[in-house]
Recover the amino acids of this structure.
């Protein structure tokens, strides 16, 4: 699980574009600092929303490391931004006040504008669902009944002082739209086209790999019908690309997490979570 710069508990570097180069660098830092042999063994990536665009960009430029990709309501090749993201001030933030920009970001993220001192605190930052031996309790969801993702987003908006800068920079430079070239390159690498990988590796791990894309039926941020159609066209290898659908909106990975895990497990040929 990678906590992106500018979100969660991660710092927000300033005076830098939040684009694929920044996120590719962050992923490389995480891999190089890990005691695990990520590069030699290869790994698969799961990208949700903005993370989908980040995962595809990393795979396009580091195919020697990536074996397969799972996309959950991915950004990257959106044909248009959601209505709440269409303000010109996101493109030209210097033309508006910081307070107006804060209001626009709040509207886009669906959070309330209020005094942070009066904001509720997320009671428990890490949900402990492990038994005394350290094993996960299989029959329990990863979240508690009172877990509220909206409250977490609200807390982040009110307490992470770099969030607005990150959000606006993601809008301007992030892998949300216009990433067709990288996605098409991923398809060419999967199909083994000569020269597509741009790497000295004679056989990148992504060659012959697969992509699973899961969309929410009622997602009003990522239009699954448009993105799935464009994904299949750009990858150009239908036998290597699976499209699946889950009930719910853009937050379906939270509210339908068990179903998402089942889809990924079957895609990776893992044993079912059920006994």
């Amino acid at each position: 699980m990678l906590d992106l710069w500018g979100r969660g508990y991660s710092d927000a570097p300033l005076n830098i574009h939040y684009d694929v180069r920044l996120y590719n660098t962050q992923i490389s830092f995480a891999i190089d600092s890990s005691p695990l042999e990520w590069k030699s063994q290869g790994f698969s990536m799961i990208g949700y929303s903005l993370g989908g665009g980040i995962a595809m960009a990393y795979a396009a430029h580091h195919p020697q490391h990536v074996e397969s990709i799972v996309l959950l309501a991915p950004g990257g090749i959106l044909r248009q931004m959601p209505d709440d993201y269409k303000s010109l001030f996101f493109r030209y933030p210097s033309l508006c006040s910081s307070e107006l920009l804060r209001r626009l970001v709040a509207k886009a993220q669906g959070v309330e504008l209020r005094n942070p001192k009066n904001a509720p605190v997320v009671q428990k930052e890490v949900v402990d669902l492990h038994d005394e031996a350290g094993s996960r309790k299989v029959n329990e969801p990863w979240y508690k009944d009172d877990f509220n993702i909206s409250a977490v987003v609200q807390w982040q908006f009110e307490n992470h002082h770099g969030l607005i800068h990150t959000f606006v920079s993601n809008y301007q430079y992030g892998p949300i739209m216009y990433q067709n070239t990288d996605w098409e390159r991923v398809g060419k690498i999967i199909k083994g086209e000569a020269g597509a990988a741009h790497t000295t590796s004679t056989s990148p791990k992504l060659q012959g790999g697969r992509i699973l894309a899961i969309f929410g039926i009622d997602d009003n941020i990522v239009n699954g019908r448009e993105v799935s159609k464009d994904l299949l066209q750009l990858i150009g290898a239908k036998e290597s690309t699976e499209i699946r659908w889950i009930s719910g909106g853009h937050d379906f990975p939270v509210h339908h997490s068990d179903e998402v895990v089942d889809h990924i497990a079957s895609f990776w040929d893992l044993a079912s979570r059920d006994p």
About this structure: The first strand starts at residue 43 and ends at 48. The mean pLDDT is 87. The radius of gyration is 19 Å. Residues 20-32 form the longest helix (13 residues).
